[in-house]
């Protein structure tokens, strides 16, 4: 089975903060990491390969430094790595991104399954997986939490829904996005690290993937960011004072009328 | 690309410190842009001397944008129930439609769902398109996506809103790709721009650390998915008049490539977290699973639901369906009691629209206190058991 895993290098979102005084993004010490959900997609691909044979190719669209992340993916079990990188891709929204990835995948050509993380932690859109499936004309399953059965022609999987889960069956080729519950990603092996050091990463430009320049980057995007700003928080900050039991009594007095109004904790 | 006017640039470095991507640096007294630039525009906004600009080649619009008119809401149903977000979207859609002077329509997809159309009219819809077909009994991206795309191609709405739910976030991107238009995910605010009537879509990014307002300038429809529990529904008015339009689609069109073999509703909790009036939440400060037993007890005494921060879920103390925040659920209860939660922005975006927020935390500097209506600095293992006792007494009084 030939599996492609789409991975994205992202700034570690938990470190990105807006400075409330200057309203600018403080990025000191912000690390670039492999999008955490993509790590689970990669792990699932490597497990499927271990059970059913085949190859795992990691594919990323990003700046040249995304190469480091692709090497890390190889150290965790990927066989091949492809980086699609070109200044022409800058400013791409999800529409232009799915176009670029679809053209790169058409170049790679042969695949049975594409796995992606459910979303990237920088944009949080969850749009690239489904958009890419549509561009490639293949079926799509979102939020996969378990792959139950894989015959090589079809896969049975569980997808997470808001009120539970669905058991679905789909013929290959197909594209899945995965959630964290699907597995526990492994740490790189020593052998993997050695391979990652030596591997030749395939690098593709806009010309290599025969992309229409009109469809790329900012120019090819259907959406535009018009304003970036800091979220407003409610600033109440009313601290209770006194000994712990005094504070609990005050809180009880404040809460009681609210709870009575809700009909909770009544006789 | 990003253009830097070297003459105008004073080398102050504000752009360098603003760039989240580390793509801009001051060298030899002026700004220089590198490969990591994503053209997000943050630096252009902060430059005090106007030395930065983004050259946008304006795209030819797709046909005449004015041919697209009207606001649509996808009214989600699952297992025969209307999702609450459908009514919230009608509330938001009503305002947009009135500002634009156009009708508000709802789209109902499913099997045996025609009966729900009345409720949609009572909550603000002027028209309801109903595709009631056994082929839509289970949710599939193919059938639902084809149905909504076909309706949109025929009737040309200028705006489509859907809930940012598992279903909405799964099939709406496919609809946007099929229609060749832009989509903004997970919006928390929607408005109409006065100058040109464009939809201003505001959403959190970087795990809620920043907000971005996005437009879809050259293509229609403008499509947004909207976070549940952010918009307010209108009060139902049974006297409102509206038109119900049954639609029959070609069966070949509703044939999915993904088969749903089984659809399981999981009993997540005795109380549905998203709809609970009282939520008691625990975080890293609870230290272990036993800490959560205390949270459950308080929730039981108060008749509320149990929630958790991502830290607690990641530690395996409580399953994911209880997670509140950017990558979990959004809740807006009457009372939210945060115990041992520091209040990372990712958590705050999921609960800050609660009416009353109580925070109990050992660290007086924890950001959770910035959103708290009442804050107690103290040990959760001391405070929470005392609260449980107080409310138990009240219950038995």
What is the secondary structure topology, with strand pairs?
The complex is a heterodimer of chains A (267) and B (397).
Chain A: E1 2-6, E2 9-11, E3 17-19, E4 24-26, E5 32-34, H1 36-52, E6 55-61, H2 67-75, E7 80-84, H3 94-108, E8 113-117, H4 128-136, E9 140-150, E10 154-161, E11 164-171, E12 174-178, H5 190-198, E13 202-204, E14 224-229, H6 244-262
Parallel strand pairs in A: 1-6, 1-8, 6-7, 7-13, 8-12, 9-12
Antiparallel strand pairs in A: 2-5, 3-4, 9-10, 10-11
Helix pairs in contact in A: 2-5, 3-4
Chain B: E1 2-4, H1 14-18, E2 24-27, E3 30-33, H2 42-46, E4 52-54, E5 71-75, E6 77-78, E7 81-82, H3 84-100, E8 104-110, H4 117-122, E9 127-132, H5 141-155, E10 159-163, H6 166-179, E11 183-187, E12 189-192, E13 199-205, E14 210-215, E15 222-226, E16 243-246, E17 258-265, E18 278-282, H7 289-302, E19 305-308, H8 310-314, E20 335-339, H9 345-351, E21 356-361, E22 374-377, H10 380-396
Parallel strand pairs in B: 5-8, 5-10, 8-9, 9-16, 10-15, 11-15, 18-19, 18-20, 20-21, 21-22
Antiparallel strand pairs in B: 1-4, 2-3, 6-7, 12-13, 13-14
């Amino acid at each position: 089975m030939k599996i492609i895993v789409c991975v994205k290098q992202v700034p570690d979102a938990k470190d990105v903060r807006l400075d409330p005084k200057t309203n600018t993004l403080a990025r000191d010490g912000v690390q670039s990491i492999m999008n955490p959900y993509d790590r689970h997609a990669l792990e699932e691909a490597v497990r499927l390969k271990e059970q059913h044979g085949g190859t795992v190719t990691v594919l990323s669209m990003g700046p040249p430094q995304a190469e480091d992340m692709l090497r890390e993916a190889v150290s965790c079990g990927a066989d091949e790595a492809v980086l699609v990188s070109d200044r022409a891709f800058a400013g791409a929204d999800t529409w232009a991104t799915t176009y670029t990835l679809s053209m790169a995948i058409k170049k790679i050509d042969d695949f049975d399954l594409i796995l992606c993380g459910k979303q990237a932690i920088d944009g949080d859109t969850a749009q690239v997986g489904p958009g890419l499936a549509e561009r490639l004309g293949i079926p799509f399953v979102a939020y996969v939490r378990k792959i139950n059965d894989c015959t090589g022609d079809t896969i049975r999987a569980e997808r997470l829904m808001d009120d539970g889960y669905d058991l679905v069956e789909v013929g290959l080729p197909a594209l899945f996005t995965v959630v964290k519950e699907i597995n526990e990603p492994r740490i790189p092996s020593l052998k993997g690290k050695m391979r990652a050091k030596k591997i030749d990463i395939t690098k593709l430009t806009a010309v290599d993937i025969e992309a229409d320049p009109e469809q790329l980057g900012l120019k090819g995007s259907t959406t535009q960011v018009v304003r970036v700003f800091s979220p407003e928080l409610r600033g109440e900050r009313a601290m209770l004072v006194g000994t712990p039991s005094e504070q609990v009594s005050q809180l009880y007095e404040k809460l009681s009328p609210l709870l009575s109004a809700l009909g909770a904790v009544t006789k | 690309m990003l253009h830097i006017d070297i003459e105008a640039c004073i080398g102050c470095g504000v752009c360098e410190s603003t760039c989240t991507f580390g793509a801009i640096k001051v060298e030899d007294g002026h700004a220089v842009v590198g490969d990591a630039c994503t053209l997000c525009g943050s630096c252009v906004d902060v430059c005090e001397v106007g030395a930065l600009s983004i050259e946008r080649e304006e795209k030819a619009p797709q046909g005449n944008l004015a041919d697209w008119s009207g606001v649509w809401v996808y009214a989600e149903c699952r297992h025969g129930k209307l999702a609450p977000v459908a009514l919230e979207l009608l509330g938001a859609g009503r305002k947009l439609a009135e500002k634009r002077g156009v009708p508000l329509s709802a789209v109902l997809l499913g099997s045996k769902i025609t009966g729900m159309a009345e409720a949609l009219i009572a909550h603000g819809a002027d028209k309801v398109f109903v595709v009631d077909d056994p082929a839509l009994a289970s949710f599939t991206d193919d059938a639902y996506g084809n149905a909504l795309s076909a309706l949109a191609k025929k009737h040309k709405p200028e705006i489509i809103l859907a809930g940012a739910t598992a279903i909405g976030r799964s099939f709406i991107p496919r609809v946007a790709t099929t229609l060749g238009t832009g989509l903004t995910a997970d919006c928390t605010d929607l408005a109409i721009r006065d100058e040109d009537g464009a939809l201003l879509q505001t959403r959190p990014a970087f795990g809620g650390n920043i907000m971005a307002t996005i437009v879809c300038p050259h293509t229609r429809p403008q499509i947004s998915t909207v976070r549940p529990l952010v918009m307010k529904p209108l009060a139902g008015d049974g006297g409102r008049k509206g038109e119900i339009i049954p639609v029959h689609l070609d069966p070949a069109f509703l044939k999915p490539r993904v088969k749903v073999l089984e659809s399981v509703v999981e009993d997540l909790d005795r109380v549905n977290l998203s709809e609970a009036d009282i939520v008691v939440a625990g975080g890293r400060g609870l230290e272990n699973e036993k800490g959560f037993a205390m949270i459950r007890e308080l929730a039981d005494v108060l008749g509320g639901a149990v929630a958790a921060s991502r830290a607690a879920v990641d530690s395996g103390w409580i399953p994911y369906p209880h997670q509140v925040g950017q990558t979990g659920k959004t809740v807006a209860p009457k009372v939210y009691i945060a115990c041992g939660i520091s209040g990372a922005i990712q958590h705050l975006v999921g609960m800050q629209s609660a009416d009353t927020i109580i925070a109990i935390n050992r660290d007086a500097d924890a950001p959770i206190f910035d959103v708290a209506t009442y804050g107690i600095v103290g040990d959760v293992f001391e405070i929470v058991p005392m609260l449980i006792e107080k409310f138990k007494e009240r219950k038995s009084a």
